[in-house]
User: Fold this.
Amino acid sequence: MSGQELTRAGGAGAPVTSSELLSVVASRELAGRRTVFAGIGLPTLAAELSRLTVAPAIEVVYESGVCGAHPSHLPETIADAVLITGAEAVVSMPTLFGSVLQGGHIDVGFLGAAQIDRWGNLNTSVIGDWDRPAVRLPGSGGAVEVMANAREVFVVMRRHTPRSFAGVLDFCTTPGPERALADGIRPLGVGVTRVVTELGVLAREGVGDELRLVAVHPGVTAEQVRAATGWDLETAGAVATTAPPTAAELLLLRDEVDPGRVYLR
Assistant:
């Protein structure tokens, strides 16, 4: 939903933007978690905000091998030197993926995607035909390893449309546990359990479950979310309404987490 569709939160000043709403709602999902493997972008915003609010002891891990990051300001890439200063540890790629991830030490993998399907499989490779795509995307990075080895995976998506929430992915970059099990591979984690979008929150319990609508943002109806989804989206009982960002959350996000507007739009 657009910023114009949200009221001013708690007298916090400017209207709440979609990026701010996504970051705040996603950060709340990290309450009670111990470690998060954060992708760059909105996952980084959410992880950093959670450290200042619902998860002060959370350890943020990045694909570059930085564990327990305490950056003075938001990194622009996973290789940004700001991640190293003050970090608890910097490890090699074999150690990060072979010991930290495959060792089962990550509670939540926090990812973004261009497309997702009802089972939580992700596409970050191409939109359109593989040989002549409309858009070519960065690819997997470490997402395949995160999906397979984090205890659960959260996804944050800026757009909620039938193209991005697809009945059939244009390409499966990051398969969830159902596909892995079909190939005789047993992953450590249960795959995607939460998806935060511009319209609401989708969730599933784990392997074998479809994503269901569990919450809508203020001003959004369940019917709007279903119409914007490329499969027959079910609801999980009564659909809740997410609490809008508070003035305190917005102040932290705007003035402490991302004052330079690296990711906030």
